[in-house]
Structure formats: structure tokens, C-alpha cells
Amino acid sequence: MRILQALLDILRTEKEYPASFSALQAEAGADVSSQFSYHLDELTGHFLKHTNEGYAFRYAGWKVATAILAGIYNQRDEFAATSIAGTCPRCETDALEATYQDEWMEIDCRACETRLTRYPFPPGGLAGRSPSEFLHTFDQHVRTHMRLAREGVCPACFGPMKPFVERNDSDTTASRDAGYKCTRCGNRLYPSIGMLLLNEKPVREFLRNRELPVDVAPFWEIGFCVDDRCTVVTCKDPWRCEVQVAADSDTLILELNEHLKVISTSILDNSAI
């Protein structure tokens, strides 16, 4: 681990890279050359490559080193419920609070007692950042995972991810009836259906035309991303649901099928009702 971290330090501080044997030994703080050489040889091939220029990362070695830097394996951090800036999309109050515990970030509204989001987040994402900076990082972290899943890529192992629907006869709420599952590692994502539509062209165009681009606010302040009332199952067999995206006096209605594909869109002018 020290060797991998040493090579990453050389890379990120723009020292001579690929690194020579002596430079890498010095950066790792290894006193005994023979012992250092043994461990370096064990890494070379799968984690590192050795060329005439020196030692450099293979993808596996870089991935391990950056995962350690992210704190995934070797750090713990937490903070109790803390007030944050922003407006709850359900009750429109500024009573949001964030909690970080056991590597999970949770954002709730104290006023209406609604959990807006809960998602795993590596502790390295908090290091050296102000509250607004790590909240922005968390926002981008979740958006990226949703975008990957939507494209059929598991954000954990990069295996194939497939949509699924669990038909629930007890109610018409779709927020936990559907999601994505990795066929390789079994990773499951249960986002709100609206969260999956952040990058859909009809949604982005609808909001952009009303000067409300989806990238302005964090996703937990966007109603259709976190409010279950915006998503309704309209048919059980075949499974269909509708997501409502409201802006100004208009509402964009998107219909999705059992493959979580948008099959129709329409715009409702609420001012005419």
C-alpha cells in the first residue's frame, strides 16, 4: 500500500513520472532496498508496469491507490444532523439538514419530516471541503451514478445494469417499485423514477425553455427527483408510470414502460384549468 500511495504522490505532485526505483523507494520511505525490491516485484505485472522510463501505474494499481485516497477502505467520518442551505421541494421551507454516518449521506426536511435522499458517499469526499463544496460533490456523485445506471453501466463494478420493476399491488407509488440491478455484482439502485430522468432530452428542453435548467439546484431541491407525489403508477399489467415535471404554469408529463423507457410526453397548461 505504501508503494502504491508513494507512486500516486509522485504522479499528483508532478514529480518525474514514470518513477525510477530510487525515487519510488525514497517516496515510500523504505530503508532496506532488498525488502523494497521484493514488494515492488510483487506489484509489477498486475498493479504496476516497469519500462525503461521507470515504474508506472496499470489501471488496477491506480484504482487501488485512488480508492485508498477516497477513504473507502481506511477512513471513517461522520457528522450529526446539520442545517444546510436550500429549500425543501415538498413544503418550500428552508429547514433542510444533512447527516453523514456509516458512509451514508442523508438529507431531510425538519419541517415536513421528509427524507429527500439517502445514498452512500466515500469519506474522502468530505476531506478538505467546505459544507457547500462537499454537498456539491455529493450532488455530482449521485447524478453520475444515476446517469451510468441509465446507460446500463454499474457504478460499482462497471458490469451490465438492467432495469427492473417490482409490481406492488398495495399502492400506486412508483418511487421504490423500480430501479436498476447489475447482472454481475448484484448492485441494486432504487432511485426515485424522476431522478433517472434528469438527463432526458424532453426534461432538459422543457426546463431550459422556462429558464429552470436541472443543473442549477442540487437534485434534492428538484421536486420531481425526490417527491413521490410526482410519480404515479398508472397501470400494473403492463406496468406503466407517469412522472410530472412542473415549471411555471406548465407540467411536462412523461410516461414510462416496464423497461423504464420514456414512451410518450405531453405538456399540460395548468393556467387553462
Give a verbal description of the structure.
Residues 86-262 form the DUF7351 domain. This is ArsR family transcriptional regulator. Residues 2-68 form the DUF7347 domain. The chain contains 8 helices and 13 strands. The chain is elongated, with a radius of gyration of 23 Å. Among the domains are: 2-69, Winged helix-like DNA-binding domain superfamily/Winged helix DNA-binding domain (Arc Repressor Mutant, subunit A, Orthogonal Bundle); 194-272, no CATH class. With 273 residues, it is α+β, with helices and mostly antiparallel strands. The mean pLDDT is 90. Helix 1 (2-12) crosses helix 2. The protein has helices at residues 2-12, 21-28, 33-43, 59-69, 131-150, 193-196, 201-208, 223-226, and strands at 48-51, 54-57, 79-83, 96-101, 104-109, 114-120, 161-165, 178-182, 188-189, 231-236, 239-247, 250-256, 262-269.
Task: Reconstruct the topology from this structure.
Elements: H1 2-12, H2 21-28, H3 33-43, E1 48-51, E2 54-57, H4 59-69, E3 79-83, E4 96-101, E5 104-109, E6 114-120, H5 131-150, E7 161-165, E8 178-182, E9 188-189, H6 193-196, H7 201-208, H8 223-226, E10 231-236, E11 239-247, E12 250-256, E13 262-269
Antiparallel strand pairs: 1-2, 3-4, 4-5, 5-6, 7-8, 8-9, 10-11, 11-12, 12-13
Pfam families: DUF7347 (PF24038), DUF7351 (PF24042)
Protein name: ArsR family transcriptional regulator
Domain DUF7347: 2-68
